[in-house]
TrEMBL record:
Name of this protein: GNAT family N-acetyltransferase
Annotated InterPro entries: Acyl_CoA_acyltransferase (IPR016181), GNAT_dom (IPR000182)
Family matches, as PROSITE patterns: GNAT (PS51186)
Keywords: Transferase
Top-level taxon: Bacteria
Organism in which the protein naturally occurs: Streptomyces odorifer
One Pfam family here: Acetyltransf_1
Domain N-acetyltransferase: 1-152
């Protein structure tokens, strides 16, 4: 949760309204806790034990994705967050490459995500990482809904994909572990 709280502060400082609605925050955090407890959330743990990133592999959000999208053909990214001190290290791109590798291993065609409709900088970031805008959905009770996908075969940094490591450490390098393990 510390990464989320740090991201909330950074977004507020940048003037982005994402994750700042006090009415929906408790529900959003409870949903994320459920993802953590269900083993769908992974963290990047540095050799010194600091957490520098997280990603959740979520079920397709049916407020946005429908059966016409062939829901079972993709892994769905949620809560991709990197620590501010990881800025410039390509950690976000490497996390998405890790998701792509998992999708490919599961013989899935796509990596999909949604993001805040008003967060143009984040949308541009995903486009720069090879995602294609699919469409924008705007259910009245949600502020997210900008939908994008990337072929699972796309790896921007194949030489530097994060390694799965249940123990939390692997050769002194960054490793990706299920939240709560290690």
């Amino acid at each position: 949760m510390a990464l989320r709280i740090e991201a909330e502060g950074w977004l507020a400082h940048a003037g982005v309204d994402q994750w700042r609605d006090p009415a929906t925050r408790p529900t959003a955090l409870a949903k994320w806790r459920a993802d953590i407890e269900a083993g769908r959330t992974w963290v990047v743990e540095e050799p010194d034990g600091r957490l520098s990133g997280t990603v959740t592999l979520a079920a397709p959000d049916t407020d946005f994705w429908s059966t016409a999208d062939d829901l079972g053909s993709a892994l769905y990214v949620a809560k991709l967050i990197t620590a501010r001190n990881a800025r410039g290290t390509r950690l976000g791109a490497r996390l998405l490459d890790w998701v792509s590798r998992r999708a490919t291993d599961q013989e899935l065609s796509w990596v999909r995500l949604d993001c805040w409709r008003s967060n143009r900088a984040l949308q541009a970031y995903y486009l720069a990482l090879g995602f294609e805008h699919v469409r924008t959905e705007a259910p009245p009770h949600r502020k997210s809904g900008w939908l994008a996908q990337r072929a699972s075969a796309v790896l921007l940094h194949p030489e530097d994909v994060l390694a799965d490591c249940p123990e939390g450490r692997w050769g002194g390098r960054q490793s990706l572990t299920p939240e709560g393990v290690g």
